[in-house]
Amino acid sequence: MNVNGKHYRTIWIKENDPSTIQVINQIVLPHEFAIMDLRTVEDFRIAIKDMYIRGAGLIGATAGYGMYIAALTSPENEFESFIEESGKILAATRPTASNLVWAINRQLEAMNSRSIRAEKIKIAHETAIAIADEDAEFCRRLGDHGKEIIMEISKRKKGETVHILTHCNAGWLAFTDYGSATAPIYAAFDAGIKIHVWVDETRPRNQGASLTSWELGQHGVPHDLIPDNAGGHLMQHGMVDLVITGTDRVTRNGDVANKIGTYLKAVAARDNNIPMYVALPSSTFDFDLIDGVKNIPIEERDAGEVRFMTGKTVDGRIETVQICPDSTPARNWGFDVTPARLITKLICERGVCDASESGILGLFPEKK
Ligand code: MRU
Asked: Which residues face 196 on adjacent strands?
């Protein structure tokens, strides 16, 4: 998508330097737009774990490039053990998004199909690019499917503005391009449908406030930032036509893990008869799991993210402040699981389906 009129993806190989991967540094957004270089497996580990990059699709794409860099920087005689260890290091960074392990396994399989080191590096390079390109293409396609849903609602409202609520950032910053929840939004906006987005701030890391607001603003999509707890009130007053979120992992039966707070939005949406859509590329399915509440690993992050907030002061300095008493303990779960029964439909690159095993396998029959 565009930043100040120039097209960017979130990750790419540096021009004329195949040993450097560049990413948009998401920690300093929205106050600064900065590019970061990743050259070693350790750089990739820190970038994913400390959330310089984040979002399910981008975590996967970054792991894909990380495995390519692992191959490139591997010691001459220890290729296999170095690659295996690098895969383990990257897989341990964040537990919830299924795209991470999916991308690492895809790279391991690709490299295992070659016998000579130079060929392994070559195929790791090609696979990293393929993962990133597919991610963008799948998001673009699911955007077209989701646009149809928004268009239907717009027709029903006789062209009046369609109000969409979204949580966290499942935008192009969370993928390599387009986003998942935002892809239908951008496609509808570009098609001239009148839309408006309610952006949940998404405590504790505020990905909605800092990233989704920034993205939508760059693209000119009308939006308002709202506190996390406002959604239910807006739904009760007819101010939300649909909810669209992304997801970090969807089980075989359609349970959805997404940023903490998504479940409460789904409950409120159901209580108010508002459709709740979840958009995802197929790399986010975990076909091996059923019962998301029991089985999806939920990341618990540092309590400091709850106890402190970072932002811009009135005189323009970036500061971190403590928002609770010095001795207050805190807990910080990054995700929650919305049971399939609360999801109206899933929006994927192959089309729209029920959040159920039969609905999902209808689109992905090869997983039966
Ligand atoms: O912790 P993050 O920022 O990596 O989590 C991102 C989310 O949970 C988003 O809500 C999103 O829907 C999943 S990424 C497409």
From this structure: 163
Q: How far is the CA of 79 from the centre of ligand 1 (A)?
A: 33
The total of other beta-carbon atoms located within 10 Å of residue 341's CB is 11
Distance CA 39, CA 258 (A): 30
Give the pair of three-digit tokens for residue 266: 């789904």
**Structural domains for the chain:** 2-134 (1.20.120.420), 145-367 (3.40.50.10470)
pLDDT digits (tens, 9 = 90+) for 158-201: 999 999 999 999 999 999 999 999 999 999 999 999 999 999 99
286 is catalytic: no
Structure tokens at 348: 């994927």
CA distance 174 to 26: 10
Mutation test residue for ligand 1: of 29, 53, 169, 302, the one with most atoms within 8 Å of CB = 169
Q: Give pTM, 2 decimals.
A: 0.96
How many whole angstroms separate alpha carbon 197 and alpha carbon 240?
Answer: 9
